[in-house]
Amino acid sequence: MTTPALPLYRRTPLRRLAGVDRLAVAGGVLLGIVVLAALLAPWIAPYPEDGGSATHPLEALLPPGGDHWFGTDQVGRDVFSRVLFGARTSLFIAVAVLAVSGVAGVALGVVAGYAGGWARDVIMRVTDVFLAFPALLLSLALAVVLQPSVTTVIVAIAITWWPWYARLTASVAASVSTRGFVDSARCLGVPAPLIVLRHVLPNSLTPVLVQLSLDGGGVILTAAALSYLGLGAHEPTPEWGLMVQQGQSLFTTDWWVVTFPGLAILVTAFAFNVLGEGLRARLAR
Amino acid sequence: MPGYLIRRLGQALLVVAGVIVLTFAVMRLVPGDPAVAYAGPKATAAELADARRRFGLDDPLPVQLWNYVRDLLGGDWGTSLHTRRPVRDDLFQAFPASLELVGVALVVALVAGIPLGIAAARYKGRLPDLSVRLSSMLAVSVPVFWLALALQTVFASGLGWFPVAGEYDASLDRTSPLHLYTNITAVDALITGNWPILASTLSHLVLPALVIAAYPAGVVAQMTRAALIEESSREHARLERALGFGETAVLTRFSLRPALNPVLALIALVFAYSIVNGFLVEAVFNWPGLGRYAADSIRSLDTPAIAGVTLLVAVLYVVANLVVDLLQGVVDPRVRAR
């Protein structure tokens, strides 16, 4: 095994393409399937009405079979259909949290990074305080304060999630701000807000975007945990964490009620992690 | 070093102050009147006013914050509304149980994660690497509460290899009562030579500790792999290879120690995360730790108790970070210079 200390050749486009991490591709494909399942749930679910509050007491707790691939739950709803609809809930939460916390974090971070000095110190210390609360912990406290619902989950997680992006953006923006083109813009008399928007911000985004894709899995796990604790989505919302909670006492007798929603969380979080990991490895090169 | 130490300590204190203010702010948002929760729904107006005065709810917010900080520093963390005991005493009992569980889990995670990371770095791009990367990503993607339920169902309820729930067999309290020193059951049993309780505790620990270990083991393996690959591409590794050292020796004899520094930093982060992740696992295995206390507190809207748990874990995180930073300063002189 040889390890050249310096790259001896320039990367050609072909080499770059060949270098795309196979794991990242696999993660992208897997995530694509989940997204498709979420988008098409009303059309591909065998029993679309089971995504809501429908009940079929006579068909309760049927094991997996031809009519019900994943079996039925305690009120007779098709678990497969509910898992498909659950993808909508989970992805919606993930996108909302990442969008809200991403925008807030990037905005604060880019200001801190460009301004430097005391503004950076103040923003970074506030960030440190929020970072001291593990996401699930502050979400727990907040979820008690607010009424349990999907919106609560989004708000609670977003509040604990933005500091990561603020910190990341601030460090990138600080190094971008020392570059020549920023100095030139400043010398030309471009007002500071414009410099930040036109020059610093676009050049600071890539690491944050990668981090966002890496964090999708974490948001989905946290959201599922909150719903599992009864602090998030509630009946009849099809939510994977809630489905696990409702079925947990039946695990020994009717394993499918708990197993499939749990697997759905695992697969989705895994897809996000694999994709993000691959993107990060590519960015690091 | 003194300058670095003081700067770092000052930063940590500032963050703790912020943590207290934030906890206070969150708790003031609680719906419903804490006085009602304490005095009960049938309380008369006079009783309510009395409770309100007792908790200082009539004072302006800055005064309340000041009183809150003063009480905290004086060791008064408030009275739990559901156990009716001082929150500090409750935490003093529940926290060691969580610490026991997470401590064992982190040891398992390090013992499993570091060798896996070394193996992955040694066979980079080949089958062992791919399988370690895949399994570590699975480990960080699995919902802990679901994994806990699955292991409990299969290995405890199903096969009967391990106990289903609890910290140790409660009937042992009669045959061989445990003297408490540290409140950490396994440690107390060990130092007092209480073998039945020690054995029972260890067998109760296996499943929940394994579940909590999954996430840290995954991140430790990933981090060890990445740090080793970077470290072994440095100049010193070229020299070692030129001197005829094999790839394994380059990794383990020369690159491992400098590469473990970021892993150490990671452990501080993961520690607080695992305590909170442990809440879910404690709920499944009915482990008498912080998680169960938090769950009970949430159910009864017990503001002082929730504030206590939140504050404890956040401060723990700050302290863990501080300790790791200082340790790194000791281990690696380059950190001090920064």
From TrEMBL, chain A:
It is a multi-pass membrane protein. Residues 87-276 form the ABC transmembrane type-1 domain. GO terms for biological process: transmembrane transport. The keyword Transmembrane applies. GO terms for cellular component: plasma membrane. SUPFAM superfamilies: MetI-like. Keywords: Cell membrane, Membrane, Transmembrane, Transmembrane helix, Transport. It is found in: Cell membrane. Pfam families: BPD_transp_1 (PF00528), OppC_N (PF12911). Its main location: membrane. The keyword Isomerase does not apply. The chain crosses the membrane at residues 23-45, 91-117, 129-162, 255-275. InterPro entries: BP-dependent_transpt_permease, MetI-like, MetI-like_sf, OppC_N. Belongs to the binding-protein-dependent transport system permease family. This is ABC transporter permease. It comes from Microbispora cellulosiformans.
From TrEMBL, chain B:
PROSITE patterns: ABC_TM1. Keywords: Cell membrane, Membrane, Transmembrane, Transmembrane helix, Transport. It is found in: Cell membrane. PANTHER family: DIPEPTIDE TRANSPORT SYSTEM PERMEASE PROTEIN DPPB-RELATED (PTHR43163). This is Peptide ABC transporter permease. Gene3D superfamilies: MetI-like (1.10.3720.10). Belongs to the binding-protein-dependent transport system permease family. The chain crosses the membrane at residues 12-30, 101-123, 144-164, 205-228, 263-285, 305-327. Residues 95-328 form the ABC transmembrane type-1 domain. It is a multi-pass membrane protein. It comes from Microbispora amethystogenes. Pfam families: BPD_transp_1, BPD_transp_1_N. Signal peptide: none annotated.
